[in-house]
Design goal:
The protein is mainly beta and 177 residues long. The chain is built from 3 helices and 13 strands, in the order E-H-H-E-E-E-E-E-E-E-E-E-E-H-E-E. The strands form 4 sheets. The chain has a 6-stranded antiparallel β-sheet.
Length: 177
């Protein structure tokens, strides 16, 4: 049986850098704007089974920072995850326990592998919906608080001032623990 979750700007505004000013300017028009929707299918939570589903991420920015997911590490950190792009353009931002940062492109026909122990979030860098499939072990769990506890990931994905994106250091971030 599928289950779902929808995140709007008022529900995830803390993931964006220095959001107080940017978010307060957006509030009248965008407080309930949907950022992303997730639908997943869970046959069981038994070891060896899989959870799979889709994420639809809308285009947009808060200030100069692109819409993104909350991001997470698996509660069973030794579990990997895969993403497969269906449409749109975006990236998967990954951070290792040692603080190494990698970026992987997500677009139609591209498979992205998230290694065990890596913290990850997806970012829509395009002008249309970013749609992708995901799957991971059913007993992996998700630790959404790890990013907040460590004041964000080490890098942020912001507009480069033209039509692209660039990584910017997050000076508030501390090493994941």
């Amino acid at each position: 049986m599928p289950t779902g979750d929808t995140k709007n700007t008022s529900g995830i505004w803390k993931v964006f850098m220095k959001t107080e000013k940017s978010f307060s300017r957006m509030l009248p028009e965008w407080s309930e704007k949907v950022v992303y929707q997730v639908e997943d299918h869970r046959a069981s939570e038994q070891p060896g089974d899989l959870i799979y589903g889709t994420t639809v991420m809308m285009p947009g920015k808060v200030g100069n920072e692109f819409f993104m997911t909350r991001g997470h590490q698996h509660q069973k950190a030794e579990c990997a995850e895969t993403y497969f792009g269906l449409s749109g353009e975006g990236i998967l931002l990954l951070e290792s326990p040692d603080g190494d940062v990698e970026v992987r492109e997500i677009r139609a026909g591209i498979m992205v592998y998230v290694p065990p122990y890596w913290i990850h979030r997806s970012v829509n860098t395009g002008n249309t919906d970013l749609v992708f499939l995901f799957n991971y072990p059913s007993d992996a769990g998700q630790d959404y608080g790890i990013i907040e506890r460590n004041r964000g990931m080490r890098k942020r994905v912001v507009t480069d001032g033209t039509n692209g994106w660039e990584l910017k250091d997050n000076e508030d971030s501390v090493k994941f623990s």
